[in-house]
Every structure is written in C-alpha cells, then in structure tokens.
Amino acid sequence: MAARARINAFRARLTASTGKPAIAMAAHNPLSAKLVAQTAGFDAIWASGFELSASYAVPDASILSPNIHLEMTRAMAEVQNLPIIADLDTGYGNAINVAYTVPRYEAAGVSAIVLEDKCFPKDSSLRPGGRQFLVSTEEFQGKIAAAKASCSMLVIARTEALIAGLGQEEALRRALAKQKTPDEILSFCRAWPGSVPLIIVPTSYPQLSFDEIARLTDDKVGLVICGNHAIRAAVSAMQRTFARIIKEDGIAGTESEIAPVSDVFELQGDGAMRELERKFLR
Fold first, then answer.
1. What is the pTM of this model?
2. How far apart are the C-alpha atoms of 54 and 241, rounded to whole Å?
C-alpha cells in the first residue's frame, strides 16, 4: 500500500465507529515488526522508543541518537505493510527540531507520530521516581503546530500531566489548547470534550480489556497502544531459555520451546532470496 493511502486508511480506522479501538503493538526492530504484522488483529505498529532503548541496553532517557530510531523505523516499514506510529518522545528539542525531524519520518514510510509534553531530555514514564517535568502548554502547542505544518501524517499529542501528578483538570487543559490507576484515566476519557479520538497506553492498568476500554470510555478512545510487550516477552523468553541451557548442561531441552530455524528463515525472506538465486545466479 502506498504511504499516503496507508495514512488515510489509518486515519479512517481511528475515527470509525466499530465499538472497539484500534490496537497497536510495540516493536523495536524489523523482525518484531514483521511478527506483529503476521499476527491477525493488530491495526498498527508502535515504533517504541522504550523498546529500542532497551534493545540497546540503555535507559529510555533521550540517550540514543535520533538517527538510530529513524533508521530502525525505516527498516520496520520496509518489511511489512501495517501503518507505523513513531514514538518521537519530545521531538528531540523545541519546535524547530520538530520541524526538521518530522518530514524525515514521513519519508521513511511512517503513518503517524507521537509527541509528548515533557522536557528534553525526557525520562521514562514507567520509571518510579522519574523526572516528570513538562514544558509549558504554549511551547507544546508550538511543537504540535510545527509537526502538523511539516507533514501529512497523523500527529498525536501526548500529555503526561496525570503521570506528573498535575491532575485531571491540568491534563484536560493541556489536551485541549497518568496516576497509574485506571479510574483517573477512565474519568479523563469520559470528561474529554474534544472531537478527535483519544489514544491510551494502558501499561500500568493491564486489567482493562480492549472491549472494556471502549465501553467504559464511551467509545472516545480510538487507539490502544501496547507499549512495551514485544521487548518484555523477548527478555522473558531469553532468560528462561538461557537459564535452562545452563541448568541442563545442553540445548536439547529447549528445542521444543523455541522457534525452529525454518521459522526464522521465513521471517528473513529466505524464500524470496532463493527465487532470486534461481533466476539470476549462474
């Protein structure tokens, strides 16, 4: 699907009255993005800054170069056809940085970007006792305006007012110009008077199903982002496998629990390469 068509289709999905929000799954490299695309039911891929930082074993605190995230996101777009939502954190600076950065993501095949109202450098929203400092509403408005003026992608504004402990009134005020319980999030959603759909990342309240989110928020949520489940699943699986190999002094016991090499070949596009070999190698 062409990039513009993918953007339009994703915009239509977010605003469709289906009774259930669109679902985006996190990915941190082309392999995980391809696995998301092969799993029926996901509507988009979340090119997660948290997951990418974790894959490099560094904190999610604006440490990695923006070019690393951009090139990894481009690589995700090249191997599958789901729309990609790029996690741009703070936009890597002020509105000028945003104006220069956003078009590069559109050129990379991205369908939507997310900007949050934290100060640069950011700290992870999931980190206990993290530095949750926000820019002024006016500065954030400038960033969103700069992003919208420089691309045709969907621009998603993410307010961290609840996470920063500023309360629902401030969160609503910022959204219009998270404590970690679902009650405040649900209350915020029901109080939302805007015409655009809301997007939530329910990492801290996983007990809510997607159907419940739609029902309890009066269908105001257009997208739910599973923000870090790919990297967490990968870490858990590797820890179990590595520990078992050491415990059993061999690899035989893990064979039934890990993907066969043939599955990896398929994800690598090995079949397409073999076809090229048959046609062109002499």
1. 0.88
2. 19
- Assess contact for 147 and 113: CB atoms under 8 A: yes
Domain that holds residue 94: 3-228
User: Which two structure tokens, joined as six digits, stand for 78?
Assistant: 């090249």
Do 83 and 44 touch, CB atoms closer than 8 A? yes
218 belongs to a structural domain: yes
Q: Is residue 153 part of a domain?
A: yes
113 near 85, Cβ under 8 Å? yes
The secondary structure of 160-185, three-state, reads CCCCCCCHHHHHHHHHHCCCCCHHHH
Closest by Cα among 71, 136, 137 to 110? 71
Q: Which residues are catalytic?
A: 60
Q: What is the CATH number of the domain that holds 16?
A: 3.20.20.60
Rg (CA), the chain: 20
In the numeric block, which tokens belong to residue 71?
């090139």
- Amino acid, single-letter form, for residue 34: K
Residue 269 resides in a domain: no
pLDDT in the model for residue 267: 96
**Beta partners for residue 47, in sequence order:** 27, 86
Per-residue pLDDT band for 3 (boundaries 50, 70, 90) equals: confident
Structure tokens at 185: 């999030």
Q: Is 153 exposed, middle or buried (0-12, 13-18, 19+ CB in 10 A)?
A: buried
Overall domain count for the chain: 1
